[in-house]
Amino acid sequence: MKGLANFVMRGRLQALIVIMAGAGSLLFCWISAAALALVVLRKGAGAGAWLFMWALLPAGTLLYAYGDSGPLAVLIGTMFLAIVLRSTVSLSSAVLSGVGVGVVTGLALAVFSGEYLGQMVAFFGEFLATLEQQLAEEGQPIVLPRPEAGQIAGMLGAVTAMISMLCLLLARYWQSALYNPGGFGVEFKALCYSAAVSSLLAVAAIALWSFGQQYRSWAMICLLPLTFAGLALIHARVEALGQGKGWLAWFYITWLFFDPVKFLLVLFVIADSWINFRQRWPNAPTRELNKHDEHDQKDDRDI
């Protein structure tokens, strides 16, 4: 992956090739988005905007032909987060901005993509009906709740926000690997939020969750920054206590497959925002290291 990042940064043509190659693909749009973010972080919004205009051709074609705005939304969301990171020099602020990406994406889908959401509702309805029939044949009759259009819009908004955040982190990792080796690890492990921000996100998520099934996917958007802060906190703890990568592997397995672990991670982050666990761990990154190295802030010649 570092080789790909190095190829992107060789010049405008190389960056254009990588970004356009995946911009119209559901499978590879994340590579284009991360490459675009890398250019924005290193060269600025102007260079990124030029590449984004070209990326509109494949992404816009996919939207026009099939009504799928996913790759375009990921490109826009990731570029926005990269601009925030470059301007604020704060990884926590950039990740927090992902909430706006998710909300705006979900609302845009709800307003402008009613037909597409209707197709998704029909697809999930048919899938769940088939699953109910199979369970009934096995002697386990059950009625599964059908998602509504608003719920699917929120789910797609949350997925777009999550992918945009991951693409930003990948781009920041690439930037660090090329120009400041090891800087990303320190920066990510210091990712955290104040008590006011973490509490506000938690309250918003609880409020949306309490409104019913239709709004629970929207609640997940509010929890994304806390989740990433929780993963950063786990990485900081592992490093501080010298637990090794094996412990991290087991954690990610349990986190992926067991929902209570996700819930406990969010509670861990909220508690950290009040208590600051890193102060109690030896050799842990401080809470004030969400800054780029000065070398990362210097622009090269334009792509």
Write the layout of secondary structure elements.
Blueprint lengths: L1 H7 L3 H12 L5 H15 L1 H22 L3 H19 L2 H22 L1 H24 L11 H31 L3 H7 L5 H16 L2 H29 L3 H13 L1 H17 L18 H4 L6
If helices are DSSP runs of H or I spanning 4 or more residues, what is the number of helices?
14
Number of separate strands: 0
Query: Uncertain runs with pLDDT below 50, 5 residues or more?
Result: 288-303
- Name the shape in a single word: globular
Give the SSE string. HHHHHHHHHHHHHH
On the 0-100 scale, what is the average pLDDT? Answer: 87
Structurally, the number of domains stands at 2
- Separation of the first and last Cα atoms: 20 Å
Radius of gyration: 21 Å
Describe the sheet with the most strands: none
Q: Which key terms come to mind for this protein?
A:
disordered C terminus; single chain; globular; 303 residues; 2 domains; mainly alpha
